[in-house]
Amino acid sequence: MSGQVVPVKVSEKIFEALEFAKSKIEEQLSNEVTDYLTLSHNEREELVFEGMVEQFTSECGFHYFYQNEGAKRIHELTLRQFTRALDYGYVVDRTPEEQVAAYFNMMGRTAEEIEVGEGNEGDIIPSLSEGQAAILAVFDILGIEIEGVNK
Fold first, then answer.
1. Could you tell me if 57 and 113 lie in one domain?
2. 0.85 exceeded by the pTM?
3. Cα(62)–Cα(76) distance, rounded to whole angstroms?
4. Residue 14 CB partners (closer than 8 Å, separation 6+)
């Protein structure tokens, strides 16, 4: 094992729930701890971590405290997954299709920005990067459609 810290992959719903709960804990701490804003970043992070774990392990859970149905999704994680996510960070676990769309958009303009003008079939759309045009050509040959890329 390389010792590299790897963020925990979570669904988009759990990601949103974690961000929501974290913001609520931070808000609560800034109201309750008089010198919260003068604390170091690490000290604030430690307080947020402790508050998150306290809520996670309480009998009621996050959804009771925040009256938010989405917050209960946090409890789909095990305690170990939850604490790893807080320690190492967390990212949205994208489907292969979402990963391809993100890569496609990183290479140039997004699908929404590309305006297909009047042209002949087989013409390369001038607003695409060469890489994007190549990806679209391969997808066309293989009959592949991916939302946000060519669909």
1. no
2. no
3. 12
4. 73, 74, 76, 77, 90
Q: What angle do CA 124, 148, 151 make, to 5 degrees?
A: 70
The total number of structural domains in the chain stands at 2
- Range(s) of the domain holding residue 117: 96-142
Q: Is there a single domain that holds both residue 53 and residue 80?
A: yes
What does the block give as tokens for 90?
Answer: 């967390």
Distance CA 137, CA 74 (A): 41
**Is residue 13 one of the residues assigned to a domain?**
yes
31 vs 149: CA distance, rounded Å: 45
- For 102, 106, 133, 135, the CA distances from 128, given in Å and listed in that order, are 15, 12, 6, 10
Q: Do 114 and 128 touch, CB atoms closer than 8 A?
A: yes
Q: What is the rounded distance in angstroms from the CA atom of residue 102 to the CA atom of residue 64? A: 35
Token pair recorded at residue 132: 């994007």
The overall average pLDDT reported for the chain is 82
Task: Give the model confidence (pLDDT) of 58-72 as tens digits.
Answer: 888 776 667 777 788
| Tokens coding 129 | 């990067």
